[in-house]
Design goal:
Length: about 280
């Protein structure tokens, strides 16, 4: 069987240039969407890939939480998701996510084009290199500068309030932070907090895929200065704000995708050079 579930020698597996992790709201508006079932050495991905043409570029959309949002953040098979994108021929990956604000100047509805992450997860399978080949991927600058520049430019063009850099703290979930944890993250100067940004970013880098995330701020995190007067965050509130802003995220992707270069970004395409011992 090939990666699309076709018998060997049957139909050619479809391919895509660009991958997007996000909910169905990002692709349901497109025409001629092709559903592709994929198999990986790491088990099944979160969902089929949904391929469509967007302004002349072939894009593979995958709901990272599953089609019906049935997968909590700590149960997502990140390795299978990224491997599936690689098998489809994807070179560029966009991973928009919901996030909480850790700083008062970052307001609900703002976008943050992250340039760093802080891993506070535990137990997630976060590498393709479990031995015997020993590989140490450089992670000082984990996101594609080319994609980040496009995301920032797109926000300016579309009049979306954007912060052009910021550290994304990735917590294990599925619970939200305690007030003490939020105070710690905020005092460290980190900008936003979420549950899905790791290991997605570093697995993409291990596969030499160019990856970037844009965080949509849906709430103020517990522990933020002055947050005693802010209602406690709930999952319902987060989803409500994110759903209200799906169109803005979709508009941003529509602006960015046709402007992604045809050539690979050396920052990503050469990520494994000199990494293996």
């Amino acid at each position: 069987m090939d990666t699309a579930g076709n018998p060997a020698g049957g139909l050619v597996t479809p391919s895509a240039e660009i991958g997007v992790f996000g909910g169905s709201g990002f692709y349901r508006f497109l025409d001629d969407v092709q559903e592709v079932q994929l198999e990986t050495p790491y088990g099944p991905p979160s969902a089929p890939a949904f391929l469509a043409d967007l302004h002349g570029r072939t894009v593979a959309f995958m709901p990272r939480h599953g089609v019906d949002h049935e997968l909590p953040p700590h149960r997502i098979n990140y390795r299978a998701n990224l491997w599936a994108m690689k098998e489809l021929g994807v070179s560029w990956v966009l991973g928009p996510c919901a996030a909480g604000s850790l700083q008062p100047e970052i307001r609900i509805g703002d976008f943050v084009v992250c340039d760093q992450f802080v891993d506070r997860t535990r137990g997630r399978a976060d590498t393709f290199y479990d031995g015997p080949e020993v590989t140490h991927i450089a992670a000082a600058d984990p996101y594609s500068p080319v994609l980040r520049e496009l995301l920032v430019a797109g926000c300016h063009e579309l009049d979306i309030a954007v912060h052009d850099a910021g550290a994304l703290v990735v917590i294990q979930g599925p619970r939200f932070s305690t007030r003490a944890e939020g105070q710690w993250f905020s005092r460290m100067g980190w900008e936003v907090i979420g549950m899905t940004g790791y290991p997605e970013a570093i697995l993409a880098r291990e596969l030499e895929l160019c990856y970037a995330t844009v965080a949509l701020v849906t709430d103020y995190d517990a522990g933020l200065e002055g947050s005693d007067d802010v209602p406690k965050v709930t999952a319902e509130d987060v989803m409500k704000v994110f759903t209200q802003n799906v169109e803005r995220v979709r508009n941003l992707l529509e602006w960015v995708i046709p402007r992604i270069p045809g050539d690979n970004d050396p920052h990503c395409a050469n990520a494994l050079r000199g990494a293996s011992l």
